[in-house]
Each structure stands twice: as structure tokens, then as C-alpha cells.
Amino acid sequence: MLTSNSKDKERSLSLLCCWYLGRRRVAMLLLLSLAFVVFVLGSYTINKESSNSPNIHQSIETIEFGINQTPLSRELSSFYTGDSSNDQTTRGSDVDIIHPPPSLPSHHPCDSFSFPPPPPPGLRRPGPRPCPVCYLSPEEALAHMPKHPFESPVLKNLTFIHEESPVKREEGQGGSEFGGYPSLEDRTNSFDIKESMTVHCGFVKGTKPGHQTGFDIDEDILPEMDQFHEVIVASAIFGKYDLIQEPVNISEMARKNIPFYMFVDEETHSYLKNTSSYTEDNKRIGLWRIIVAHNVPYTDARRNGKIPKLLLHRLFPNVKYSIWVDAKLQLVVDPYQILERFLWRTNSSLAISKHYRRFDVFVEAEANKAARKYDNASIDYQVEFYKKEGLTPYTDAKLPITSDVPEGCTIIREHIPITSLFTCVWFNEVDRFTSRDQLSFAVARDKIREKVDWSINMFLDCERRNFVKQVYHRDVLLNMKPPRASSSKVLPEPLPLPRGKSVGGRANTGKKSPGQRGKRRHRKVSAGGRNMR
């Protein structure tokens, strides 16, 4: 039997356990109450901040992507921005944040990509070289084509000056009849960005670009150039200065949907008819659709080439994206991959590579004079004009702008009002001054940037060399000596002569003669050889 003391101890222990458990329950209830209060206060704070924000409100929606549909985003990220009520949403207005469906990755496949370490100094190859670039597959790249156009800041409507009899209005004025001889006042007004603008942009005469304007196009091709295309690739050869380079590594999807246009003058056209597979029936060489420009406005073939290069939006008014490639380059990457990498992924409307060595306009001008790219007096006049306007040598004060000098042989752009204005005023500088477009690029860019928030994606030149392969101009190729033919018969190696014996009357001492010291022999290679980039 239990004693009274044992019963008291047992009762005390039971009371102690009950008290302890009660304390724990009270503590748990207090913690739950506190968590609830924090949650309510936090929700109130978030809702208050969201309601006070003028720019963004948040919502959760579901998007269904069919086979032929494209995401609403301009770049693959953890969310997509857009305005379901208006395709032409201005920056700063309310936008919906729409989360992607679970099937899309939350990070871009190239997010983890980085350049490999450089080789040791002794193994580095001299000169500019291509560097690695992370591309999506053509199918994945096409899936990321933006559904909505890039928003053109401020400028919404751009029209062009038409004048049947343009005349010079200033003494010593540069320019041409094709460009309309814009005055300095016209030039200044073209940089005053407004919602609606009318500017000089070539083709000032005639009823439409290519029809009685100078740079005239055959009547049967003009309707084709008015058709809608999401993407085109364009190039030009004038003065039979280059040889046509067939693009490679182009997907079947791109071959089917993307037209490739090559502009040529009559001189180049005659050369093509006599030396290639070109026929008047199909007007094609490989992927390239040949378009002949008649009545070209300039005697300088390179200046004529700037017309399709900078004024593609005038020749193809219903195109969304274009890739310009100088004829000295061979395209070696699919156009969809290029657009995704340099426009859509970076949320850009225009992309061009920076010069691999020079980034200052004044240095570029001296290099042009040293290489006799143009007459020195004209280059000096242009640079002095820009200097009086306020152009200064490039310094780090211009960051985040990293260069004032492009390697302008490729241009990747979306055709929207602000990019069309930029290439119009850039062309007007080329028309007024020298045809060296590297000298006028920064002036046209910076004067627009003074008025609106807009930037150009200036990517590394080694990245450009990844998607195009540079070959020689035609005159260089024609002057090259053909590579030495290999012989099927292997000749035996001559026996070594003992030291001191004569060869052709000269002693063989095993040492180099004074005339041989310091000389290096270089093997010449033809275009397309394995040692050429």
C-alpha cells in the first residue's frame, strides 16, 4: 500500500506536469498569435506600397503557348513584362508582371556562360580573332522573338521629306540631290526629338523609294519589297568590289522564312551574268536574291553602298527586323540566333560591334588618313566641324558608353521610329561629309541620346567575328598568287652535304648567311583556307 507521503508526492508530480504542459500551450498560442499579427501587418504594408506605386501593379495570370506562339517578353527571365490593354505601352506606365508557365525555364540557358581563360602568352595568336558566343538553337531563338515591338521613346510617327527639285541653299554646302541638300537648320531640327517628325532621309524625289528617285529598282521587284517580312538579311556590292559569299549554317526554317537580298549596280550585275550561275529568270545566286539598282546617285561606289546599308527601312517599309552584312563577310550563324543573342536577349533595338582596336573618333580619323581611306582635307574638315560642335576625345566619363567607333560592317536592328531616325541622320552625315561612316556614328548617336533615353548595344568585335567570316575584297583576291599545287609523287629528301662542301659555288657552313638572318618566310594561303578567319 502507498503511504500518505507517496500519495502527496504523486499528486505534486501530476500538478507539476499539468502546469508545465499548460505553459507550453500558452507559449504556442502566443507564438501563433504573434505570427498572425505580423502577417496581417506585412500584408497591409505591401498592399499600401503597391497602391501608392505609380508604375507597377502585380497580378498572377496563366499563359498558354501554342506551337506557333511566342512569349510576351523581350528577354527570357523569371517574369515577363507587358501591357495586356495596349501593345504600344510607354515606359513608366502601368504594366502587368506575368509569370511564365512552369514549362519555361526561369533562367536563360546562357546565364552561366563565361569566356574561357586566355591561352598562355606564348600560344596566343596575333591580330583580332573570334571569341566564343552562347547561342540558342534556331528553334529556341525564334520562340523568343518578342510579340510586341520595342517601345520607341518619344518619337512615334516618322515621315520623310519629298522634294522634286532640291537645291543647295548654303554656300559650300555638302550633300547631294538624292539626299535633298538638307541645310544646317534642317540638320539641327532632325535631332530635336518630338512625337511626330519629318526629316530628310534620301529618296527625296519620285513617288516612292526605288521609283524615279535615283537608286531605281526594277518595277517587277518593287511589289516584293513592299511585302511584310519579320526578318530580312541584306548586303550590297557596287563597282564589282566584292565577290558574293554564300551564307552557311542556315537552318531550314530560316531558309524558308527569311529572304536574303543582295543589292548590286549595273556594273556588278554585268559581271555576275558573265561569271556566275546568275540568270535573269530567277535573279538568284544561292540564297541571295539579286536586286539591281539603276541610276545610282554617287560616283563613289562605297557611298552608294551606304544607301541600302543605312536606309533599309525606306526600301523595305514593312519589315520588323533586319541584319546588314557587308559583302566582304560570309554569314556563318543562323539569323534567328543572331537576333536572339544581340537584340532580344539584351532588350535592344539596335546592335553594332565596337571597333576591335580604336574607340576614339579623332584616332579613327588619323587612321583613315594614314590608310588613305579618303582624302585628308575632307576628313580634317569633318572632324573640325564636329570638334566645334563639342565632340571631344573619348574618355571614361562617357561610360556606360564604351566606344565612339563602331566596326560598322554589320548592323542588327528592329525597324521602329527611333532606329529609323538614327540611320536617317547617320546617312545625312555620310551624305554631307565623307563616306567613312565610323567618323559620324558617335555624333548621330549622341545627339539623339541628349534628347531621349535610348542606347545602342555595342558588343565586342570578337563576338561579331563569331557569326561572320571575313574574306578579301575582289581586287585583293584577283592579285593573289594561286597556292602551290601539291604533287602526287613524293620526291626523296636530298642527302645532307658535309660541312665545307660547296653548293652552286658557295660553301655550306651550316650557318645562315648575313642576308638570311632575321628573315621569316610566310606561307601564302587562299581565301577560305584553314588558317584564315
Automatic annotation (TrEMBL):
Residues 158-473 form the TOD1/MUCI70 glycosyltransferase-like domain. It holds the Pfam family TOD1_MUCI70. The chain crosses the membrane at residues 26-46. InterPro entries: TOD1_MUCI70, TOD1_MUCI70_glycTrfase_dom. The keyword Cell membrane does not apply. It comes from the Eukaryota. Residues 78-92 have a biased composition (Polar residues). Residues 78-101, 483-533 are annotated as: Disordered. Keywords: Membrane, Transmembrane, Transmembrane helix. The keyword Coiled coil does not apply. This is TOD1/MUCI70 glycosyltransferase-like domain-containing protein.
